[in-house]
Amino acid sequence: MDPSRASDPSRGKGFGWRLRLGMLLPSSNPVAEPEITRILPSGVSLNTTRLKLAGSTREDLLGMTEGVEAAVGLLSDAGIDRLLFNCTAVSTFDPEMGEALRLRMEAVAGRPAISTADGIVAAIRALGARRVMMISPYIAPVVEREVAFLRHCGVEVVHASGMGLKEGRAMSSVEPGEWYRQAMDQAGSGADLCFLSCTAIRVFGIIADLERDLGMPVMTSNQAMIWWCLREAGVRDPLPSLGRLAA
Hints:
Rossmann fold, alpha/beta, four-stranded parallel sheet
């Protein structure tokens, strides 16, 4: 036998031989899977299931949480190592929501879990940020709840905006250049972190340009979530396309 094949850590383990992730995602989000999958380190795989969310009302957002246990059960059938609940608006709905979702997922799967809110808080702390400008596609009530969540976590929000969009496909249709322009418009806000909030917006490709032109770190929902999940799992490969946070 070829010694190099005998020592190959992926031999016989298939996809995700290093880490197999299972993500719960809003049903109307067409962005998170391709955006995240493209930057995963070697040996890390992503498996996804969806929960119904096609609006932004209070009832829509809370309704997404009703199927968590069933969705986790489906992902567990694939031999998942870690679970991710990836929706910013739901996981930051109130200060307790992220932890509640995490505990529910872990109770079903017996595996570690995180929410987008966990990644956001961890990323802010890792970057040492104190004053955040938040740019999002959301309607006003969602923006207000997320600002309240960030303030509860000890973060000063110096600017918060939303585009009034209500569902994932509309959010995903906004061109990356529009997010760049909105962020640059707030260059003098006094922030020390630019947060592009929402897992359904296409922004991975502008992180490096914004960090250079704003002169500050840039955080996005998908970036913070996958960075924190990988770090918690002990996968510390540099992810240079994700900016200062993951360098």
